[in-house]
Design goal:
The complex is a heterodimer of chains A (250) and B (470). With 250 residues, chain A is α/β, with parallel strands linked by helices. Helices cover 37% and strands 26% of the residues of chain A. In chain A, strands 6-7-8-3-9-10 form a 6-stranded mixed β-sheet, sandwiched between helices.
């Protein structure tokens, strides 16, 4: 797989120093909705080891996407602590959270979220612009990420000219281009047919194995979670239900 | 995000919604154009007025007189008035030279104006002769003259005021090139005679004109303070006919009907009414002046020159206060025009706010994606600012161009009307460089201000909610 070919150039993407990639300590996230308090995430404590592939499993409204957003630094917990390596996201300023999203984590979404007016190359280059990476360095970095997902031939294409699977691969390339240590995937196969979905899952598995990248994937597909993830964390009504090796839970 | 990336992204976003952004930019440019057109009219009218007034010879002139004369004008002397207790300094040739040496002084000259007789084609005419300084060449009064200005400061030439020219001939244009004879009484100092008392003698008529040597000898000879009056004649060639006499000082206007070079007028040594007073005061015979007019390089320099002259112990008068009032009037006038012009720009800035707020709604998801990819609130804010600023900048440049065109069109229309009224053309509007730069900068900053609310709203957008937005 192409992901393996770039193992050396990307280097050690696990990059932690304290024995974990992510750790949450009694994290809660509550929303006020129509006068009622919704406990989207309720007192959740998990630890994800470096290089681990974890699936967050649960039905709709179980709080798994909210937890992923908290790990990504897109949202702040109402209480508790979230450590990405050795820093607590709950105590970060918005500027520091932006830096965390830019440099520590990469995100892929169910809806791909590519900018429709930009070509694939421009979409992949966007995180480099935001991270203020030197312009001279960018073409090589973009090519490296696009080669990783085998989309070099589609560099000048716009998202509307790509298939669903290609769009998700482009989104993966965009998530990898800043060389993050953690990849957060929110239902990456949710909009894809089963064959394309499997291809994306294979790609994630390759990235995890070959780049030793920590992956946290939100899914409601128990079979895929069991097939590809090292560990499955199940959530229901915002609470942690089970956590264990994927073969045990399956 | 680096500035170049920010600019590229902003430009890309503006291109994507090209119609809406173009219309918004056009709205800004119309606002700027109305502002520029209004202000250019104000400035144009101000320049027109100040040019006409400054070319009248009044606004760049300082009237200088001795403190004694000022006391005479001003009633009883005040105790604090230094000049009241000390002898007033004479306004003589030495003082004239000193006045000429003051910075920004172009010319210092006395007012020479006298009634006399002129002979033209055998007929005598009584008229008033006035000396015209060389600096009067640029006065507006000579713009529409028939013929030409004096060829030199000591040319035996005359320019006729139109009324006097009509007295001489119905065909005033035909007078140009003809000669007339000026008849006058020359004041000739008497040689020093300690035993003699001050006297006034009338001598017989001599040949017309006078040699320089003779004049010099008269100057060098010890003067008694007395003088004799000698009738003389001088031939002058008519070189022009002018509608109005230019203002050459504050002594009176429109009385000179025959204009000759000032230097010639001074050389004539015409007996003046004040000569008797000077003689009785026992002056040495060297000429002193009742007053001198100091022509300054520009009206702006008048105050400084006036202060310097006062420091020399002379009294001064200028129409500086009048120009101050004129400036005040035009400042208020410009302000009012600017306010009316700004109204259009205010409406345009609402257009910017509307466009950018709409853009936030449209690009809500895009903002969420940018934030998910690592954009800080500051990056999003700056992106919207850049878009607002770019619209303001382009709108400003376009607005100045349109404003200039409106000004040109108004000037063209006005000149067509003036031409029908047989009046000279004018430049109704003026857009100085500071107005161009100021209008573009104003448009830019107003647009930034208009973009402030949308930009801050975009920056504060919750990325999770933004990503959910369809």
């Amino acid at each position: 797989m192409a992901a393996g070919a770039r193992n050396n150039s990307v280097g050690n993407m696990t990059g932690n120093s304290n024995g974990f990639a992510i750790r949450t300590e009694r994290v809660s996230r509550q929303y006020a909705m129509g006068g009622a308090l919704v406990h989207a995430v309720d007192d959740v404590s998990i630890t994800v080891q470096p290089g681990e592939f974890v699936a967050l499993l649960g039905s709709s409204g179980s709080g798994k996407s909210t937890l992923l957003n908290l790990l990504a630094g897109l949202d702040r917990p109402t209480s508790g602590a979230i450590y990405a390596h050795d820093r607590n996201l709950a105590e970060m300023s918005s500027q520091e959270l932006a830096h965390h999203r830019s440099h520590t984590v990469g995100m892929v979404f169910q809806a791909f979220n590519l900018l429709p007016r930009m070509t694939l190359e421009e979409n992949v280059e966007l995180p480099l612009r935001l991270a203020e990476v030197d312009r001279a360095e960018r073409p090589a970095r973009v090519r490296e990420a696009v080669e990783c997902v085998s989309l070099v031939a589609r560099l000048t294409h716009r998202p509307s000219e790509l298939s669903g699977g290609e769009q998700q691969r482009a989104a993966l390339a965009r998530a990898l281009v800043n060389r993050p240590t953690i990849l957060l995937a929110d239902e990456p196969t949710g909009n894809l047919d089963s064959v394309t979905g499997d291809a994306i899952m294979h790609l994630l598995q390759d990235i995890n194995r070959n780049l030793r990248m920590t992956i946290v994937m939100v899914t409601h597909d128990k079979v895929r979670a069991a097939r590809y993830a090292h560990r499955i964390i199940t959530m229901r009504d915002g609470k942690l239900v089970t956590a264990g090796a994927s073969d045990e839970i399956a | 995000m680096k500035l170049r990336d920010l600019t590229e992204l902003a430009a890309r976003n503006l291109r994507e919604a090209v119609l809406r952004n173009s219309l918004t930019t056009l709205g800004i440019s119309v606002g700027v154009a109305s502002l520029v057109a209004m202000l250019s009219l104000g400035v144009g009218l101000q320049e027109l007025a100040s040019t006409r007034l400054s070319r009248s010879g009044l606004f760049d002139a300082v009237f200088v007189t001795t403190q004694a004369n000022m006391r005479a004008f001003g009633g009883p002397p005040r105790a604090a008035d230094r000049a009241a207790t000390e002898p007033a300094r004479k306004l003589d040739d030495e003082a004239r030279r000193q006045l000429a040496g003051i910075k920004n002084v172009v010319e210092v000259y006395p007012e020479v104006r006298f009634p006399t007789e002129v002979q033209f084609e055998g007929n005598p005419y009584m008229t008033t002769v006035a000396g015209i300084p060389a600096s009067a060449r640029g006065d507006g009064a000579f713009d529409e003259m028939k013929g030409s200005f004096f060829s030199g400061p000591e040319a035996n030439e005359a320019i006729l005021q139109i009324e006097f020219a009509r007295d001489l001939s119905k065909q005033t244009n035909s007078l140009i090139g003809k000669e007339l004879v000026l008849r006058y009484a020359e004041k000739e100092p008497l040689p020093a005679d300690p035993s003699a008392t001050t006297a006034v003698h009338a001598k017989g008529k001599t040949a017309p004109g006078k040699s320089a040597a003779k004049e010099s000898a008269a100057d060098d000879a010890p003067a008694s303070g007395g003088f004799s009056l000698v009738p003389r004649e001088m031939k002058l060639r008519i070189i022009g006919v002018v509608e109005t006499e230019p203002a050459t000082g504050f002594g009176g206007f429109g009385r000179g009907r025959l204009l000759i070079p000032l230097q010639i007028a001074q050389n004539l040594r015409i007996a003046q009414p004040t000569d008797m007073r000077e003689m009785l005061r026992g002056n040495s015979g060297k000429p002193t002046y009742e007053s001198l007019t100091v022509r300054v390089s520009s009206p702006k320099a008048v105050q400084g020159v006036e202060d310097a002259i006062k420091g020399m112990g002379f009294g001064t008068f200028s129409i500086l206060d009048a120009t101050k009032n004129l400036r005040l009037f035009f400042t208020v006038f410009d302000l009012l025009l600017g306010i009316f012009g700004s109204l259009a720009l205010t409406v345009a800035s609402l257009g910017i706010i509307n466009t950018l707020v709409m853009a936030i709604l449209e690009r809500r998801r895009e903002i969420g994606i940018l934030k998910a990819l690592g954009a800080a609130d500051r990056d999003v804010r700056r992106l919207f600012f850049a878009e607002a600023g770019a619209m303001g900048l382009v709108g400003g440049v376009l607005g100045v161009a349109i404003g200039w065109l409106i000004g040109r069109a108004l000037t063209f229309g006005t000149n067509v009307y003036l031409a029908r009224q047989e009046l000279p053309p004018i430049d109704l509007s003026s857009i100085p460089w500071w107005m161009m730069v100021g209008a573009i900068a104003f448009s830019f900053f107003v647009s930034l201000a208009a973009g402030m609310y949308p930009a801050s709203r975009a920056a504060r957008l919750n990325p999770v909610e933004a990503l959910r937005y369809e």
